[in-house]
């Protein structure tokens, strides 16, 4: 069943700025408190975002928005 969802319901959160490319580090050298979102192809020379993260999460706020789909009001499950 299709539902009409207004764009204002989907894009209500504040915009999060993309982290600087200067923060990127090789995945193998990434530490405990940096974003592990892989930029480009996941291979043995993978590079991750490297932006600081909060509360021990794996991804920064910008990349969490890409990884997780936001909930939408009125969505059937």
Q: Care to describe what's here?
A:
The chain has 77 residues and is largely without helices or strands. The chain has a domain at 22-67. The protein is built from two helices and three strands; from the N terminus they run H-E-E-E-H. It has a three-stranded antiparallel β-sheet with strand order 1-3-2, with no helix packed on it. The model is unreliable at 1-10 (pLDDT under 50). It holds the Pfam family GcrA.
Features:
77 residues; little secondary structure; three-stranded antiparallel beta sheet; 2 helices; elongated; disordered N terminus
Strand and helix order: HEEEH
The main sheet comes to: 3 strands, antiparallel
- Name the overall outline: elongated
* Fraction in beta strands: 5-15%
In DSSP terms (H or I, runs of 4 or more residues), the helix count works out at 2
The residue-averaged pLDDT reads 79
This entry's quaternary arrangement is: single chain
Strand order of the largest sheet: 1-3-2
**Separation of the first and last Cα atoms:** 11 Å
Task: Give the beta-strand count.
Answer: 3
Q: Roughly how many Å is the radius of gyration?
A: 16 Å
Give the proportion of residues in helices. 10-25%
Structural class: little secondary structure
> Unreliable stretches, pLDDT < 50, 5 or more residues?
1-10
Pfam families: GcrA
Organism: Methylobacterium nonmethylotrophicum
Protein name: GcrA cell cycle regulator
């Amino acid at each position: 069943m299709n539902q009409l969802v207004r764009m204002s319901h989907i894009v209500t959160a504040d915009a999060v700025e993309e982290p600087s490319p200067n923060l990127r580090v090789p995945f193998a050298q990434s530490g405990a408190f940096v974003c592990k979102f892989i930029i480009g192809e996941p291979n043995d020379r993978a590079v991750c975002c490297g932006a600081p993260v909060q509360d021990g999460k794996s991804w920064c706020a910008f990349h969490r928005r890409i990884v997780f789909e936001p909930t939408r009001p009125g969505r059937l499950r």
